[in-house]
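tokens incoming
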């Protein structure tokens, strides 16, 4: 077992692309030993961190991945639960199986990983757990109901976990990105069928999302620097909005009554 004193041992999920890849790269550049987890890796592609094959929806895969890190370093100083998937479709037309897949990754996958590393952090009396949520974890978004619900669940879970672990010296951070130019929208699970009554609204929604996640989005590299700063700060504040518009929209959600805020959200997705 190695006993490297240079930097922290960090495990981050969803590291094959997007925020996860950029954050794993940034944290590695800062002198940490970073294990970037993903379901699969292309052979021969260099990454500036240790690629780790892990399926967070599998108990066995998570246990094997964490065990590999422990066998080499004996600890996990920072866990970043970043992996996530999304959906686009009406509630009426989206099969419950898709909702289950989203919760299995976004919520239960996060819980599964945290349970795997908590005994280590508790024994050490320190550690950091960062859950990458979304501005959508506080705001209802039409036609992404199951994704939003999974992030709402993650917000409540992390807030409860913060209360449980703070007395033990373990930090819990909620990272709440706004629009970031990643592949999550491109890879979003879309419902094939749609009842005719919904078609005009969902087509407008998709057009707005294409812009928000394209030319209107923040860059993963810039967001990664901000998240790395938050993790490295040592602060114990729970919620951290990052990326374009996140802080503004979450402040508006907090201050404005539903009668105003819900109209603003509706008007945003009613644009042509």
């Amino acid at each position: 077992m190695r006993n490297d004193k240079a930097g922290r041992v960090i495990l981050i999920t969803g590291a094959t692309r997007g925020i996860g890849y950029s954050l794993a790269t940034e944290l590695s550049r800062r002198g940490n030993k970073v294990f970037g987890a993903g379901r699969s890796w292309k052979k021969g592609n260099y990454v500036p961190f240790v690629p780790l094959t892990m399926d967070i929806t599998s108990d066995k895969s998570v246990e094997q991945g964490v065990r590999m890190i422990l066998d080499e370093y004996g600890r996990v100083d920072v866990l970043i639960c970043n992996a996530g998937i999304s959906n686009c479709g009406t509630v009426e037309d989206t099969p419950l199986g898709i909702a289950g897949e989203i919760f299995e990754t976004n919520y239960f996958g996060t819980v599964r990983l945290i349970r795997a590393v908590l005994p280590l952090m508790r024994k050490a009396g320190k550690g950091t757990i960062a859950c990458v949520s979304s501005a959508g974890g506080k705001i209802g978004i039409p036609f992404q109901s199951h994704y939003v619900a999974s992030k709402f669940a993650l917000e409540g879970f992390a807030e409860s976990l913060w209360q449980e672990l703070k007395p033990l010296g373990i930090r819990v951070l909620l990272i709440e990105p706004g629009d970031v130019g990643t592949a999550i929208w491109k890879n979003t699970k879309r419902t094939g069928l749609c009842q005719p009554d919904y078609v005009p609204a969902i087509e407008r929604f998709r057009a707005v999302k294409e812009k928000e996640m394209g030319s209107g989005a923040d860059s993963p590299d810039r967001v990664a620097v901000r998240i790395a700063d938050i993790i490295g700060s040592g602060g114990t504040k729970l919620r951290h909005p990052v990326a374009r518009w996140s802080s503004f929209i979450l402040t508006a959600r907090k201050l404005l009554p539903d009668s105003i805020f819900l109209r603003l959200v509706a008007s945003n997705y009613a644009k042509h």
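note: The first strand starts at residue 9 and ends at 13.
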